[in-house]
Amino acid sequence: MNAYVESVINNVRAKHANEPEFVQTVEEVLSSISPVIDAHPEYEKADLLNRIVEPERMFTFRVVWQDDNGAYHTQTGYRCQFNGAIGPYKGGLRFQKNVYPGIIKFLGFEQIFKNALTGLPIGGGKGGSDFDPAGKSDAEVMRFCQSFMTALYKYIGPSIDVPAGDMGVGGREIGYLFGQYRRLKGTYENGVLTGKGLSYGGSLIRPEATGYGAMYYLCEVLKHEHDKIEGKRIAISGYGNVGWGIMKKAMQLGAKVTYFAGPDGYVHDPDGVCTEDKLNFILEMRAKDPMHCKPYADKYGCEFVPNAKCWGVKDVDVYMPAATQNDVKMESAEKIAASGVKYYIEVANMPTTNDALNYLRAQKHMIVAPSKAVNAGGVGVSALEMSQNSERLSWTAEEVDDQLKKMMINIHKVSAEAAEKYGFGYDLVTGANIAGFQKVATAMMEQGVF
Ligand code: GLU
Is the C-beta atom of 117 inside 6 A of ligand 1? Predict the structure, then answer.
């Protein structure tokens, strides 16, 4: 590995020893781009890598809210404006108990390269809070969101920083956040947030975009392998917006999700989650209780395996981890490799630990695709939502879906080309890192030292 790259990774390891998720993503990205640094000595001269691993700005803020009984609670809010070289900071907000700076930084760092891959002018950012939405009433969520936005509104805006959803932040939360922003600013700047409701500037297809985009990307991988999507059986983890979008697009394309895993275990439905009725049931089940997917198995009379993940099942063609970070560790990777399944398509942000990812990539019979490319359609459609807001127009579902498809075809193409250019062959992981990095690095170099 290039000595400069190694020194920057070591700096990050020492400085962020308490933030393992951030160290993990830096190791993954920087080790991939080592040959680019060899080819561009000017990057080392400008110390570009120590700059790129340091957020341009990151801050915390106090968020106090009252529960329905009048008791006070104090939470920490975060926003990381990681890199704005190619556009306003863009990235979601995560509300989850385990949120701490290491999670926000890892997501923000991934977001820089993911957003660059979309081909659209959006920089990388991320934010959130350690607020736990589980079991909270609507009124409690509203008060929390209002308090959160009261602290944040001065530091965001349609040309500054455009937050969106992530885990724990969906349409309801975005609505409350936008209402408070509008109240505080006294202007109708709906381009300040994406993932909005359709009645106030949201985009058609945004809720499904990440899952749809992942399926379009999978189609490109299959095309490359002279294979086809029709009849493919898919095992996923997670059945949130992203998993649901995968199920729906799979159905439209003649494929089917036959396994899905949740916090309580996994469901095996050999017929596939591919009727309107089943898709609607998933939405209802999730709204009632996000911690259990067993009710699906009970309703449709299929197998449910408690407290287990579906990694290693043999009767599928594609694995798509779509739940959360570090879902697939070495033990699961070994089972996946042993199953003989060819396609491992990451969807959630950093769903695979680095050792497990490298192990899977080393399997001769497997093709591995990285999440920062595969899930980029979500933020990509967010950027399309921003365009619609600034034009004061709404595009049709067909227009958005068509642009999303083109975007995913292009992401796959530029990733494959970047890997090829540096002699890696069809290595989608390395290619995505190189293509994303190259775009941001060029913009940073042209803008001078800061
Ligand atoms: N949270 C999503 C992501 O990980 C979407 C971000 C956005 O739409 O800004 O990319």
Answer: no
